[in-house]
Design goal:
The complex is a heterodimer of chains A (181) and B (213). Chain A is an alpha/beta fold and 181 residues long. Chain A is 36% helix and 22% strand. Chain A has helices spanning 2-6, 9-29, 82-96, 110-120, 134-139, 166-173; strands spanning 51-54, 57-63, 72-77, 100-106, 127-130, 146-150, 156-161. With 213 residues, chain B is an all-alpha fold. In chain B, strands 1-2 form a two-stranded antiparallel ribbon. The longest helix of chain B has 73 residues, at 139-211. Classes of the chains: A alpha/beta (181), B mainly alpha (213). At the A-B interface, helix 5 of A face helix 4 and helix 5 of B.
């Protein structure tokens, strides 16, 4: 009798695996999980040193000291990035709620970017103009949009890849426990 | 008769077709080997062409062949963070192009291969290396294949050992059965002998009693 039951072990293993894969697939479909996103190597580290011009003023150079309203989001965006247009309305909303949002204009054209912002609204406290992608490289940016969460000590706590929305805010950023007001 | 004629006809046709196909293939191959592209027609231009590396759009120049070699090796070893199943050599993604340019810069500035890999790893994480580092986090990844092979080998050994034990008990019980069969035969022979002997002696007695009249 017991040896007969042993024959069912492969079937049980299969059912178990099938359940695991099915639940994983459900999470991917609902958008909770994207297996292709890379975890940031910068979590727990300070924002890399940079020296970039302000988007709106080519003469003015900005450095790490200028990111002084913390905690804040550092949003990597560009006019060639369609998803950035999708998330922009939400960034406007966050900004109106009093959340600090800095922008990193990544590998873009200055005039195009300024025009884009004047049309779609400007939620950013300031915008770093990184047309060569230097700060992007040091941050580990591999596409747009990406959003870095910087805490009050200037340390990167989380990097979100993709469109920023309320679901991400509630599930990934609020749990970090930062004092946003 | 007709069937056999048709069969041999097909065989002949088949062999002719095969030989034609083979000769055509050989012709094409030899043509490729014979017709070499002319690389040294204009030496200075070809030097620049052989010095540049990476995709045609990159136009990255290496004057030192050793540096170029290191570059080729590095772009094969590093994964594109965007197109994650391609290395930097194969990927057309903008970030791959940026990273190739950065590699060119770093090699030119004299960084070693280890330092360059560390540079990439500290920005893009372990995933950008095709060969993951060996540490406590990746221990399962590295040890699991060998571990499973060892476990599999043990299971096979145990099964073989058990089968051998079963086989031995089977052969001994077969031997026991065979032996008892032999003994049975001997006993049958003995009984037959006894019966024959008693038949003989009873025959003798009846004959002697007949004489006594």
């Amino acid at each position: 009798m017991l040896s007969r039951l042993k024959l069912f072990i492969p079937l049980l293993v299969f059912i178990l695996l099938a359940l695991v894969f099915w639940s994983l697939e459900q999470r991917i479909i609902s958008g909770d999980h994207d297996p292709s996103t890379l975890p940031s190597a910068l979590v727990g580290k300070a924002v890399p040193t940079f020296n970039l011009s302000r988007l709106n003023d080519a003469e003015e150079q900005l450095t790490n000291a200028d990111l002084n309203q913390l905690p804040a989001l550092l949003n990597v965006w560009a006019t060639w990035c369609i998803s950035c247009r999708v998330e922009h309305a939400y960034l406007n909303e966050l900004s109106s709620r009093g959340i600090n949002v800095y922008g990193l204009n990544y590998k873009d054209d200055r005039e195009d970017a300024k025009l884009w912002l004047s049309r779609l609204g400007n939620p950013y406290l300031l915008n770093l103009f990184d047309n060569e992608g230097k700060l992007g490289l040091n941050l580990g940016v591999y596409g747009a949009p990406e959003t870095y969460v910087i805490d009050s000590k200037g340390i990167i706590r989380y990097r979100h890849v993709g469109v920023m929305d309320e679901k991400v805010w509630q599930s990934k950023i609020v749990p970090l426990g930062l004092d946003w007001q | 008769m007709r069937y056999f004629v048709g069969h041999s006809f097909l065989l002949i046709v088949g062999s002719i077709v095969r030989s034609i196909a083979l000769s055509v293939t050989l012709l094409i191959l030899s043509a490729n080997l014979i017709a070499q592209p002319q690389t040294d027609a204009n030496p200075p231009v070809s030097q620049i062409e052989s010095a540049s590396a990476g995709n045609a759009s990159d136009r990255l120049l290496f004057t030192d062949p050793q540096q170029r070699q290191r570059y080729y090796q590095l772009i094969a070893e590093l994964r594109c963070p965007k197109c994650q199943n391609q290395n930097l050599a194969d990927s057309d993604a903008p970030i791959a192009s940026d990273l190739r340019k950065e590699l060119h810069l770093l090699i030119g500035e004299g960084y070693s291969d280890t330092e360059i890999l560390q540079f990439m790893q500290s920005r893009y994480g372990d995933f950008v290396l095709y060969s993951p580092p060996v540490n406590s986090a990746t221990a399962v990844l590295w040890l699991l294949p060998a571990g499973l092979a060892v476990i599999g080998g043990l299971v096979v050994m145990i099964l073989v050992f058990r089968n051998r034990q079963v086989l031995e008990t089977q052969t001994t019980s077969q031997a026991v059965v065979k032996n008892s069969g032999d003994q049975q035969q001997k006993m049958d022979n003995l009984i037959d002998n006894i019966i024959q002997n008693s038949n003989h002696s009873s025959n003798n007695r009846s004959e002697s009693s007949k004489h006594d009249d």
